[in-house]
Amino acid sequence: GLERSRVEEMIHAMQRAGAGSLQVISDFDMTLTRFAHNGRRVPTTHNILDNRLLISEDCAKKMKDLLNTYYPVEIDASRSTEEKLPHMVDWWTKVHELLIQQKIRKDLLAQAVKESTVMLRDGYKEFFDHLAEQQVPLLIFSAGVGDILEEVIQQNRVFHPNTHVISNYMDFDHAGVLQAFKGQLIHTFNKREGALRRAAGLTALQGRPNVLLLGDSLGDLTMADGVSEPENVLTIGFLNDQVEQRKESYVNSFDIVLVKDETMDVPNAVLRHIISGRDRK
Ligand SMILES: Nc1ccn([C@@H]2O[C@H](COP(=O)(O)O)[C@@H](O)[C@H]2O)c(=O)n1
């Protein structure tokens, strides 16, 4: 018959190896969450903090100005990752400093998530539940805010025991007031360091050489760099923004590119294939 494509071959090999050899590594903002809904942007974990319960009008304005300055740099197809790096460090550092000045209270985070318009992609429940049922570890690797991310998946009732999170976590003082961010900063383009430093040490992920990787940024491709002796790493990229400018680089870098797709349909179909053991040829 016809020769299988590389992607088909990989899915087939992953299916033969089964759920016990698989791990899923995913970005969070705009990968597990939607990019837009009804023509409006869905907030990232950082933007969920833009709520008067947590931060002042003035701080919100400063964060917006920073977003308007640095987000275009993050997604600029004409600049290299090396060029973008220092700008990302500046962006995250400035925003975290602003947030710390606001004396954000831990006990108000859940309310801010409830009041936000954040939405996981359509089909999220099947994605999270299926992985949990099959005991396939899910590593969520996010440059967003870990405390908010956890609250989002908690409120959607999909925070299962197979889920591991590497992200920027808030450090609260004894009174529950934000005083710092924990550990080394994670931004869009230093996930490789985090993967080597943190993901490589997670015992739940060990002995699983097949990886399904989901991301929305070229920086997300390094999230699997901590996997020792990987066999098959199938990468799916969500291309949400600046589509024409970035299409070529995404197609050259990810195995599967989903353009303005707000659903988990393709990852779910791939997982059904790999995990179910159907289609044994
Ligand atoms: N102050 C900020 C900083 C970053 N962002 C966006 O969040 C995304 C990072 O999170 P991932 O889960 O995708 O790793 C990143 O792409 C930034 O655009 C923000 O909204 N505000």
From TrEMBL:
It holds the Pfam family UMPH-1. This is 5'-nucleotidase. The lineage of its organism: Eukaryota, Metazoa, Chordata, Craniata, Vertebrata. Its EC number is 3.1.3.5. One of its GO terms (cellular component) is cytoplasm. Keywords: Cytoplasm, Hydrolase, Magnesium, Metal-binding, Nucleotide metabolism, Nucleotide-binding. It is an enzyme of class 3 (hydrolase). The gene is LOC115384495. InterPro entries: HAD-like_sf, HAD_sf, Pyrimidine_nucleotidase_eu. Belongs to the pyrimidine 5'-nucleotidase family. The keyword Phosphoprotein does not apply. Monomer. NCBIfam families: HAD-SF-IE (TIGR01544). It comes from the Eukaryota. Gene3D superfamilies: HAD superfamily/HAD-like, Pyrimidine 5'-nucleotidase (UMPH-1), N-terminal domain. It is found in: Cytoplasm. Specifically hydrolyzes 7-methylguanosine monophosphate (m(7)GMP) to 7-methylguanosine and inorganic phosphate. The specific activity for m(7)GMP may protect cells against undesired salvage of m(7)GMP and its incorporation into nucleic acids. Also has weak activity for CMP. UMP and purine nucleotides are poor substrates. SUPFAM superfamilies: HAD-like. One of its GO terms (biological process) is nucleotide metabolic process. It comes from Salarias fasciatus. The keyword Amino-acid biosynthesis does not apply.
